[in-house]
């Protein structure tokens, strides 16, 4: 609000039709130090246009800036540093938050739809920490997209097809036990999968058997299909437990197998458009400046790319989306470049509205977690341990076991999610349960604890928001918090534009830290004329903190 208002005032002072409010807004900066003002306007980019020095432009503008929001203006070099009248600005900002509540920062509804493909665990493999990243980044982007006014279709593209099922079928027939699999489905299937890869290193014929088994599955072999369906059912039961803990749901859970009857049409379309090339017995689509995209193997079996082409076409025909996000690891970047390029060659003009939202790996002791090698950390076990640690930490603060269990789940799960999302998504993340569960520092529990602290203050102060009462700034600490609150809508917008939830996570940490500094220097519950104003300020902070956590897919406990 402050920057938009200042941008409007400066645009009016410039009085030049070539400069719009949006242009000025893009140039505005936030000074690194409070003594340099609340908003800075660098005049360097205007120098060439006006044929004057930046300092001269800044001096001339200073004399033209007359507005009720501006307290004073200083010129430092080519910068125009503006100090805002705190009473006026803070009153507007706080009233905005208190009236809008959880809608604060929301953009007007757009008649546009985004399809977001995320999570996508592989059937018959455990839901590992490696799949956490796609799941929580995708969920957060869905919430951020909705906050920006978009309609969102959440899609879980389950990995329920491919040569890995040939491997698993062979492994089960050779070494499996139905009784053991029924007792511990995912763990036993993982052991079989790992055992297969260990044996295949010594005996390459196993890989040929696996390819043949998958081809039989594609051709509808009854025994192969029955095993595949069983593996899938057991996996989905376990996945649902994890999704329920994370409080994540999807609009569509369509696995790769869903597109089996749609791939022939894709291959036929590629052939009719003369895009297919025979290469060493396999069919490919040649691409500029990248390897060819493999469509069918020598034995006619389809591939990952074939299924993704079918899925992309089906989704566009079904949902008519204006954007499509694929939240998949950085290592798949070439695959998506190929996919989008093939769709462009097929003549689909919506291909340029598809975006691969890549992310770094989840590391354990500096190394990638690998299902094939059995080096995997199970997400369900991590969540259970995080919840237990939270319970032990907070036990003394809760009178009933029911309240403790609820809060421990919110804090434990929230800690795991926040630890992932606070990192720039393209960076690798080192798994560390000890760090993520800390109630101090850059962690989810720290932000949640700040919200819980405010909730306790409001309860003790018997606070009830009364629209229209006087709102004022009492000190510098409060003003720094208000400046951060004012940034929230911009953060929401930037997090969407850059497809980066870490901006929201880092913002929530900044806001929590700023509030805690204010809390340490201010007596809030003293019965004086400022008490209601202080509590309203605290309530506004709690609204923004709660909504920040919500955008990350994290709950805000009222008591910790």
General description of the model:
- This protein has 560 residues and is of the alpha/beta class.
- It is built from 21 helices and 14 strands.
- It has helices at 2-14, 21-27, 44-50, 54-64, 86-100, 132-147, 163-175, 178-183, 185-202, 205-218, 222-246, 263-272, 304-319, 333-345, 379-394, 401-421, 433-436, 444-460, 476-497, 502-521, 531-551; strands at residues 39-42, 70-76, 79-84, 113-117, 151-156, 252-253, 276-279, 282-285, 293-296, 323-327, 354-357, 362-364, 367-368, 429-430.
- A five-stranded parallel sheet has the order 6-5-4-10-11. The protein has a three-stranded antiparallel sheet with strand order 1-3-2.
- Helix 12 (263-272) crosses helix 13 and helix 19 (476-497) runs parallel beside helix 21.
- The two termini are 33 Å apart.
Q: Layout of SSEs?
A:
Blueprint (H helix, E strand, L loop, with lengths): L1 H13 L6 H7 L11 E4 L1 H7 L3 H11 L5 E7 L2 E6 L1 H15 L12 E5 L14 H16 L3 E6 L6 H13 L2 H6 L1 H18 L2 H14 L3 H25 L5 E2 L9 H10 L3 E4 L2 E4 L7 E4 L7 H16 L3 E5 L5 H13 L8 E4 L4 E3 L2 E2 L10 H16 L6 H21 L7 E2 L2 H4 L7 H17 L15 H22 L4 H20 L9 H21 L9
Parallel strand pairs: 4-5, 4-10, 5-6, 10-11, 12-14
Antiparallel strand pairs: 1-3, 2-3, 7-8, 8-9, 12-13
């Amino acid at each position: 609000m402050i920057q938009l208002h200042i941008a409007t005032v400066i645009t009016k002072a410039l009085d030049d039709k070539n400069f719009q409010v949006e242009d000025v807004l893009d140039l505005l900066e936030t000074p690194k130090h409070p003594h340099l003002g609340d908003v800075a306007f660098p005049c360097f980019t205007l120098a060439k246009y006006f044929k004057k020095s930046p300092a001269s432009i800044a001096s001339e503008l200073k004399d033209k800036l007359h507005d009720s929001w501006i307290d004073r203006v200083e010129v430092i070099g080519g910068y125009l540093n503006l100090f805002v009248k705190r009473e006026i600005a803070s009153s507007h900002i706080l009233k905005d938050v208190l009236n809008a509540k959880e809608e604060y920062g929301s953009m007007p509804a757009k008649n546009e739809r985004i399809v977001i493909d995320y999570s996508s665990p592989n059937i018959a493999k455990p839901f590992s920490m490696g799949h956490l990243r796609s799941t929580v980044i995708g969920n957060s982007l869905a919430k951020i997209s909705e906050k920006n006014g978009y309609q969102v279709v959440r899609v879980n593209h389950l990995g329920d097809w491919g040569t890995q099922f040939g491997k698993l079928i062979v492994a089960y027939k050779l070494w499996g036990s139905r009784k053991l699999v029924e007792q511990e489905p995912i763990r036993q299937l993982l052991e079989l999968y790992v055992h297969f890869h260990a044996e295949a290193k010594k005996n390459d014929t196993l890989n040929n058997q696996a390819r043949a088994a998958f081809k039989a599955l594609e051709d509808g072999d009854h025994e192969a299909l029955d095993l595949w369906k069983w593996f899938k059912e057991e996996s989905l039961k376990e996945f649902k437990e994890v999704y329920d803990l994370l409080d994540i749901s999807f609009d569509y859970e369509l696995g790769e197998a869903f597109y089996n009857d749609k791939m022939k049409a894709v291959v036929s379309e590629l052939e009719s458009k003369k895009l297919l090339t025979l290469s060493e017995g396999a069919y490919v689509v040649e691409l500029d400046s990248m390897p060819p995209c493999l469509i069918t193997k020598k034995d006619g079996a389809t591939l990952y790319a074939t299924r993704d082409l079918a899925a992309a076409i089906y989704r566009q025909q079904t949902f008519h989306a204006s954007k499509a996000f694929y939240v998949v690891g950085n290592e798949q970047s070439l695959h998506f470049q190929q996919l989008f390029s093939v769709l462009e060659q097929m003549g689909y003009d919506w291909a340029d509205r598809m975006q691969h939202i890549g992310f770094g790996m989840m590391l354990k002791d500096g190394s990638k977690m690998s299902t094939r090698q059995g080096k995997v950390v199970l997400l369900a076990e991590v969540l259970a341990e995080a919840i237990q640690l939270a319970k032990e930490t907070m036990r003394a603060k809760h009178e009933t076991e029911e309240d403790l269990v609820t809060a421990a789940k919110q804090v434990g799960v929230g800690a795991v999610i926040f630890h992932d999302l606070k990192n720039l998504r393209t960076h690798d993340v080192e798994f560390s349960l000890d760090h993520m569960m800390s109630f101090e520092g850059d962690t989810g529990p720290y932000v949640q604890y700040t919200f819980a602290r405010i909730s306790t203050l409001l309860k003790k102060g018997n606070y009830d928001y009364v629209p229209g009462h006087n709102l004022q700034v009492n000190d510098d600490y409060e003003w720094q918090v208000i400046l951060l609150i004012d940034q929230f809508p911009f953060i929401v917008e930037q997090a969407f534009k850059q497809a980066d939830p870490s901006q929201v996570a880092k913002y929530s940490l900044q806001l929590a830290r700023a509030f805690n500094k204010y809390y340490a220097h201010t007596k809030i519950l003293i019965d004086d004329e400022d008490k209601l104003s202080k509590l309203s300020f605290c309530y506004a902070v709690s609204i923004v903190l709660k909504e920040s956590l919500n955008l990350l897919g994290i709950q805000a406990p009222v008591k910790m």
